[in-house]
Amino acid sequence: MAMHCGCAFASQPVSPRILFEFKPSASKLRASSAQFPKTQIRINPSDDILINSLDKSPEIRVSLPSHVNSITSTSNPFVKHCLKLRQSSSYRHVHGSVLVVGAIPIREVCIFQENKLGIATEIECLLLHEEAQIPQGLENLSIRIVRVSSLVMKKLSGVQSTESVEAIALMRIPNSFVDLKDDQDIVRGCSKWFPSAHRVLVLDSIQDPGNLGTLIRSAMAFNWDGAFLLPGCCDPFNDKALRASRGASFQLPIVSGNWNHLKLLEHEFQMKLFAGHPSTTTQKPKPVSRLSQEFAQSVAGKPLCLILGSEGNGLSDQSRKVCELVSIPMAGEFESLNVSVAGGIFLFMLQSCSGF
């Protein structure tokens, strides 16, 4: 059997002007702890400088004036800000904000954060269609609600039909996401990356946001402790990834780093590294274990990382070199499985409480 994916299944303003906050350029930006200083200026929304600022200087944070409770124009500066949050990964992480589209994922995030973590959901603003009711489960939340037109809802949601999109939330990127910028972050240690590190899903250049979101959702469903994103992965807060994860990106601890960070995690917790890989396509002679109940039982008590490779190129050379390769036996004569399908099988079979 084989897989193309490389795995065997494998502001309260004093006027109606837009409020901006500037972040000093010397400060290091971290999505996991985005803090914004109190330096403020006010600019007339009609000025061209507003658009230029949004396009050229993402270190500006935009707040909607407190008196605004309805937006009908797609040219509104706040709408343009939200749109860029959806479209640009760097813009999202500089601001530490993300758009979550749809009542179901918004509700799931709120329930998880309040019931499991005991914290209030960090919703900066809830955008509702002008004719929609407050979604069930969100009625009692103390959050700001702004009504928007169908055109604005369509623009921000990124979908052709907005009939099923009744709500969009502007939310803070959760503290459970850690972006390790460089090797200097190693000195911080890895004990705080994940509350537990018994089962960690490692994604190696997964570029399709639908696959990445689905894998994060599956990891959450099968009680894995977190996900580690190696270079080349798409943003887990991409709108398509969020749609596929159904809010799991806000629930599962996620770390974005490089191989040096992963090696530190491996050493700190004495983890075994497994990688999903086709049994017949190894570039160099190397044993490939078969996934089975017996295999799952043999590693049940051991901390492990499961590495899944990219959709087009498979596992990186580094992954093939350092990992024990594992394949999924297939009766059908198929060359590959989608990485999210294959990953779901792995995550189920190797979960901590598999019961095998």
Automatic annotation (TrEMBL):
Keywords on record: Methyltransferase, Transferase
Source species, domain of life: Eukaryota
Residue ranges of domain tRNA/rRNA methyltransferase SpoU type in the record: 200-348
Single annotated GO MF: RNA binding
GO BP terms, alphabetized: methylation; RNA processing
A Pfam family hit: SpoU_methylase
Name of the protein in question: tRNA/rRNA methyltransferase SpoU type domain-containing protein
